Amino acid sequence: MKLSIPGRAAATAVFASVSLLAGGSIAGAAPEAPPAVAAAPDIPVANVKAHLTQLQSIATANGGNRAHGRTGYRASLDYVKAKLDAAGYTTTIQQFTSSGRTGYNLIADWPGGDTNQVVMSGSHLDSVTAGAGINDNGSGSAAVLETALAVSRAGYQPTKHLRFAWWGAEELGLVGSRYYVTNLSSANRARISGYLNFDMIGSPNPGYFVYDDDPAIEKTFKDYYAGLGVPTEIETEGDGRSDHAPFKNVGVPVGGLFSGADYVKTAAQAAKWGGTAGQAFDRCYHSSCDTTANINDTALDRNADAVAYAVWGLSS
Hints:
- With about 325 residues, the protein is α/β, with parallel strands linked by helices.
- Helices cover about 35% and strands about 15% of the residues.
- The protein contains nine helices and eight strands.
- It has helices spanning about 45-60, 70-85, 135-155, 175-180, 185-190, 215-230, 245-250, 265-275, 295-315; strands spanning about 90-100, 100-110, 115-125, 160-165, 190-200, 210, 235, 255-260.
- Helix 1 (about 45-60) packs across helix 3 and helix 6 (about 215-230) packs across helix 9.
- The protein is globular and about 45 Å long.
């Protein structure tokens, strides 16, 4: 998550049809049930963590970070792209320049679905220069990647078109996502029925925060967490500070999840979520200690499943 822009101070449930068609006029005719909507799969947290291990290894081999314009970022992008290419996605690398360095976005489209109704999920793939960026934002990047791979494994054929994105240079001011949105035609912007953003979803002292932007997307995530019996709060710490902002600014419906950065967990929040009151949600935010040791597995598991729940539910 980008540091410098201030914000406003920011179970597995399944989608299935629950209504039955009313009986016809013929006495005794059995009502017909509409076909059930495909259930979202459970996303194996071990798979998500395996991606994080790879991102950590990439950072370690490339000066300790995966920052914009550095070799670690391009190696991270190449890792994600190879997984998607093997899974049958159509991938596109979008190049831009920021701070005198070349940056890249990675866009992956799943074949099929109505391309006039695009459900898009994204996360920023870059870290700050101080560290490997495993929670910020390897966590979101790995969960989005594993959800995309789950689409392929399931042979999912949604009604709407699915697109996934990994953004460059978010930490420099949402540069990659702004570049993508700016270079969309007005017609292509209008085709995006929703953009879902996942930035920091495995914080070690986690909260469960839901963006309150588009009501339908917000309800989708709240319904998922209600099914787990986990209370949520509206996300305020990251308002305007992540890659949903450029989409929101041009009228695209947006939503997403967040587990907290350097804001401090209150006693009330610790009472309902566990963890440590009086401590930041992520004490390693933008620091060298944001490594694979800086992840809460429960939060990562729940949020990764929520990604899939929303992708399946909003695209069906």
